[in-house]
Design goal:
The chain is of the alpha/beta class and 159 residues long. It has a single domain, classed as ABC-type transport auxiliary lipoprotein component (Rossmann fold). It contains three helices and six strands; from the N terminus they run αββαββββα. The radius of gyration is 22 Å and the shape is elongated. 20% of the residues are buried.
């Protein structure tokens, strides 16, 4: 029995608990991103999606900025819409666009507020969303979802 206990102590232990955030990060505040685009609703939609998803997926609780262990901040740099993707042709040989895409580009930073150290940062993070001719909102929702996924994956990849 003693031999087995000794061998068990020599085996390295591996685990995946805690994702990529340091163990002292238990709370997080998300600031509304500065919006350099002419689309004011983009800031609110991005903020709402991040508040809904980031804390639960990163295993932290929401907190006011002054009491949070980590702070998420950023700038929405660009919002490009009406990029043609798919075309249909009428009998008069006139091309009509049927699908479009949009791109959102932003800079983001997650900072440990106790040390001031940047935990994760990405400049020019870009996500795209496709949408039907008159449904820009669904394309924007899709692009925002991709941004949130990229943020979670980026934060978790910091081993």
């Amino acid at each position: 029995m003693l031999l087995l206990a000794g061998l068990g102590a020599c085996v390295p232990r591996y685990g995946f608990a805690g994702g990529g955030l340091p163990s002292n990060i238990r709370t997080m505040a998300i600031q509304p991103f500065d919006n350099e685009t002419p689309t004011p609703e983009l800031q609110r939609e991005l903020f709402d999606a991040m508040r809904k998803e980031l804390q639960s997926r990163l295993g932290v609780r929401d907190a006011p900025q002054e009491r949070a262990d980590a702070l998420v901040r950023g700038v929405v740099r660009a919002y490009d819409v009406d990029i043609p993707v798919g075309f249909t042709s009428t009998s008069s040989q006139q091309a009509v666009t049927s699908r479009r895409k949009l791109q959102i580009t932003l800079d983001i930073q997650i900072v440990d507020q106790t040390t001031g150290k940047t935990l994760w940062e990405k400049k020019a993070l870009r996500a795209e969303g496709e949408y039907a001719e008159s449904d820009e909102v669904s394309g924007r929702r899709d692009a925002i979802k991709r941004i949130v996924n990229d943020i979670v994956e980026g934060a978790q990849s910091q081993w």
